[in-house]
Amino acid sequence: MTGQRTPTPSEHAANHLVRAAVTAPSLHNSQPWLFAYSDSRVLLYADDTRRLPLADPRGRQQVISCGAALFNLRLAMRHLGFRPTVRFFPDTPEYVPLVQVEWGAYARMTSDETLMHRSMRRRHTHRGPFQAASVPASLIEALRQQAHAEGAGLCAMDDPTSQLRLAALVREAEQLRRNTPAYTAELNRWTRVGDAPRDDGVPAEACAFHPDCTALAGRDFTGLTRHPDTAAPPWKWSTRTGITVLLTTPHDSRQDWLRAGQALQRVLLYAAGHNVAAGFHTQPLEVADLRARVRATVPSGQHPQMILRLGYTNDRVRTPRRPVTDVLARDNGLRPTASTPARWREPRGPARGSRSPAQEVTCAAPPRPGTQRGAEPRG
After folding, report:
1. Which of 152 and 349 is assigned the larger pLDDT?
2. Residue 7 falls in which region: left (phi positive, over 0), alpha (psi -120 to 50) or beta
3. Whole-model pTM?
4. Angular region, 79: left φ>0, alpha ψ -120 to 50, beta rest
């Protein structure tokens, strides 16, 4: 007999939730999240040691990544038959976690939730041209409704003028990045080459195509554009760029970023359930003046949070993930230690008798076309 301790039911449940959460996408596959659990809740933190200071100086994309992980966690809780209750903490020093998720009432999964949960392991980021087949307008409308269910907007750039303007902004931003040695060094640190024993970053095999082979310039993870012989793509498939969409939010606070992340993952999983993959081109959103120019292309005037290409592909290269044991800890007050960073401290609650500033949301089906939904994110 060994002296191994038998995991408790809450440990089993927390591991199930976090295994799902960490399959979410993140900038350069940085996986900038941490989790803590107790019998009644899971806390989600942003891991600031994994924020990219040059590509993401405000931490906006880090929080969006955490929002995508939050949606997966909510979906995994629905898979176990419970409605998650989510409390968002304000962006103040005494509230270190981003959100708290508690076990709510029992409820069966909806058909859309089942579809998205099954798609969780299939979803992947595509870096290259899509197949010639177009994503049907009916599916784009369904994706717009999925984004709207989380309090975000999804705007398809389907007219040639908008497409050209956005492509020029992506190109300008990417060229600026390629001409900045410090940014190139940061990108290199998150690129996996060969058999490097890493469970984060973007593997070189996921970048089989030249970054400039479609109408939207991609990030040059493998450094092809830095060498004269490979600076230009051998082939360019502008007509196989896919359909370009912008994910937007009404405001630009930390809660809006979390909302954008949840909407992003909901859109990606619903798309994956219909065999549609996505590529990310957020470079102009990382530069303030270029982001303002991207916003000018949004008919609603909302704040752009993500730029995506959507299309069909047979490519199935996936990026690695850190093990759950690296990102999950027991919520016991979490005093800072070498393995438990100071940022994991338990939040100080509101004064006795005061009202909690956190906001509670529960899962709900996406609104039907033509109906209105309140501003609070829904699951």
Report:
1. 152
2. beta
3. 0.89
4. alpha
